[in-house]
Amino acid sequence: MFLGYDLHSHSTASDGTLTPTALVRAAAAAGVKVLALTDHDNTAGIDEAQLAARESGIQLLPGVEISVTWERQTVHLVGLNFDHKNSALQDGLKALQAFRVGRAEEIALRLGKAGIPDALEGARSFSNGWLVSRTHFARFLVKIGVMPDMRKVFRHYLVHGKPGYVPGEWASLEQAIGWITDAGGQTVIAHPARYRMTRSKLRRLIKAFAAAGGAGLEVVSGSHSRDDCFNMARHAKDFGLLASAGSDYHGPEHPWIELGRLPQLPDGCVPIWRDWGISSPQARAI
Ligand code: AMP
Ligand code: MN
Ligand code: MN
Ligand code: MN
User: Fold this and answer.
1) pLDDT for the residue numbered 20
2) Residue of the nearest CA to atom 21 in ligand 1?
3) Which whole-number Å values give the CA distances from 182 to 84, 94, 240, in the listed order?
4) Ligand 1, atom nearest to 250 Cα
5) Whose CA is nearest to atom 11 of ligand 1?
6) Residues with Cβ within 6 A of ligand 1?
7) How far is the CA of 199 from the centre of ligand 2 (A)?
8) Residue closest to 77 by CA, chosen among 270, 257, 210
9) Atom 13 (ligand 1): residue with closest C-alpha?
10) Which residues hold their Cβ within 5 A of ligand 2, which is an ion?
11) Mind spelling out the 3-state secondary structure of the chain?
């Protein structure tokens, strides 16, 4: 039995491979009743996705996955259910988009020095123009045969200490939570088990996040094991945080992650959607 909610997904507005319309149709076909489109650092796909959702008879919530730097580490926060026309939020996201432009140029420069020319044009050819992410570079490097798969490209070229890695400062925890809260939404820590932090560092992050007004943790994630899920449920309970659930779907090229194929939240979790006033997808399905 699957959840009916999928509150973390990507389209061609960032590094997903389906257009917002195709993503919504795929979600509806997979039985998702409530989908959040959460592209990296931009909301350019939301209007199109909402239109498609009306046609498909599902609910589409505005979302965004904001890149944050906390204690010199990159952490992703997912904002949900906010006014995506809010100008302070858009100004904040614009600063991150501008940082990405310069970073992409620098990544290409460094890859050039490592013997891989024309990587900026190559990465751009995989992006629909809204934003360039490391994923687009990885797809280009796979295409030209530098590495056989994306995972290897990241490991050998795009992470800290490798030739194409560019350090940088994203938003602060407080900024990102402030933008989402002021636009009427809620913020959750995306895929909290994926940061390779010690348990005590992760709990420090969660504590700082809760103190800054964060609302919840992504307890159920496409990249969480069953154990991760129960551990994150425990952390959410300890810090009085709500629980969210999302696949982090990027498209059919990554078949190990499917839209909406998410288990129920562990017992004792308070779902982030509890007070959203949406009738339960299960109730609707009966
Ligand atoms: P960026 O936000 O541009 O730094 O790119 C981060 C994105 O790269 C993430 O959202 C993932 O979609 C993708 N990514 C990160 N690590 C890996 C990996 N090891 N293999 C494949 N994709 C990855
Ligand atoms: Mn991504
Ligand atoms: Mn992420
Ligand atoms: Mn994501």
Assistant:
1) 98
2) 151
3) 11, 16, 21
4) 12
5) 135
6) 15, 40, 67, 133-135, 150-151, 154, 250
7) 24
8) 210
9) 135
10) 15
11) CCCCEECCECCCCCCCCCCHHHHHHHHHHCCCCEEEECCECCCCCHHHHHHHHHHHCCEEEEEEEEEEEECCEEEEEEEECCCCCCHHHHHHHHHHHHHHHHHHHHHHHHHHHCCCCCHHHHHHHCCCCCCCCHHHHHHHHHHCCCCCCHHHHHHHHHCCCCCCCCCCCCECHHHHHHHHHHCCCEEEECCHHHCCCCHHHHHHHHHHHHHCCCCEEEEEECCCCHHHHHHHHHHHHHCCCEEEEECCECCCCCCCCCCCCCCCCCCCCCECCCCCCCCCHHHHHC
User: Global pTM?
Assistant: 0.97
Distance from the alpha carbon of residue 66 to the mean position of ligand 3, in angstroms: 8
CA of 15 to the centre of ligand 4 (A): 9
Q: Which ligand is nearest to the CA of 14?
A: 2
State how far the Cα of 254 lies from the Cα of 68, in Å rounded to an integer: 25
The rounded Å distance from CA 73 to ligand 3 centre is 13
- Which residue carries 């959410």 as its tokens? 236
Give pLDDT tens digits for 54-98. 999 999 999 999 999 999 999 999 999 999 999 999 999 999 999
Highest CATH level, class, for 94-158: mainly alpha
The predicted pLDDT at position 209 comes to 99
